[in-house]
Amino acid sequence: MGPEWPLIPLGEVTENFDALRVPVKEATRRPGPYPYYGASGIVDYVDKYIFDGLHLLVAEDGENLRTRKLPIAFLAEGKFWVNNHAHIIRGNDKTDTRFLMYALSVVDLGSYLTGSTMPKLTQGNLNRIPIPCPPVEEQRDIAEILGVLDEKIDLNRRMTETLEAMASAIFRDWFVDFGPTRAKAEGRPSYLAEDIWSIFPDGLDDEDKPIGWPLKRWHELASLEYGKRLEGYKTNGGSIPVYGTNGQIGWHDTALCSKPGVIIGRKGAYRGVHFSGGPFYVIDTAFFMKFKKTISSRWAYYTVAGYDIDSMDSGSAIPSTSRDDFGSILVVEPSYLIQSKFDELLAPLWAKERANISETETLVQFRDFLLPKFMSGEIRVKQAETIMAEVA
Questions:
Q1: Surface-to-core class of residue 337, CB atoms within 10 Å of its CB (0-12 exposed, 13-18 middle, 19+ buried)
Q2: Are residues 257 and 326 in the same domain?
Q3: pTM of the model
């Protein structure tokens, strides 16, 4: 279906404030409470501001205009400063500023960019971009619905980050700082449930680690196994997550590993450590850990996540994780009983984290379904409200 809303050049439905921009070199900036924006968001906080109120910032230059890994149009509200790498606009009496952000998010910018090495979106070309213009009230309603979805997506992501930070803090206290053992050795009162507190060692040995926790090298506990080449994981679907060097990249219908485990990036300048809570597949740009004895995969994940994997370079032309370097790392091995207690204590937290991630994926899919249909007029606000009510 073609657009039902009239298409109007952006310059005719906005006010432009580019002439008020003032770049400030990092050396001369004075820290303060006001956000200092560039092409892709906040780059600093400064002691003065130029703008006040709701505005839309649009990237003027940078590779992100092509890759769009980050939004190229984003809102700035309140008091703030902007450098000369972002256009500053605001809707006039024909448009809602928040609606303009969503409208620009689905525009193909290819024909409006200049510059062979560094993409640039000039003010003139920005003003030529055609924008769908339903009645202003309809624009506001569209922006409100999409905004509600975005707020819930952002809330879920922040909650997931908080849950993960809590798990990491407990891991660090138990297995890095040896907090319970140090507290017992110093005669301090218990801060854990008795069934957990009682199984921690009562003191530290001569190597400043809990008594009875041996020092091992990773090659004694686990090996790094190569993933396998796989085609079609981006389009075939399935219920098994597929991992590469930087995380999950798709789905498959068959698992390479039949239980939860740890994935470690093998190739690339930036290589990550990832955890799968169920069966998974690993392609040939990553390793997975194969345990040689009974240990908690969660304990292994948090331990390895604390390493600088990128520094374990095998020295080949393409940066690659060195299995020898990894295998030689010394690690303090807690008793499996304590590892199990860690898993048991945090199981509800991880379940909540998984639920948040699943709900966020659903919300993102729903938002991305609605957005282009709102812009074309194929779906109207009342229809979307009915759909949302049914989903809720």
A1: exposed
A2: yes
A3: 0.85
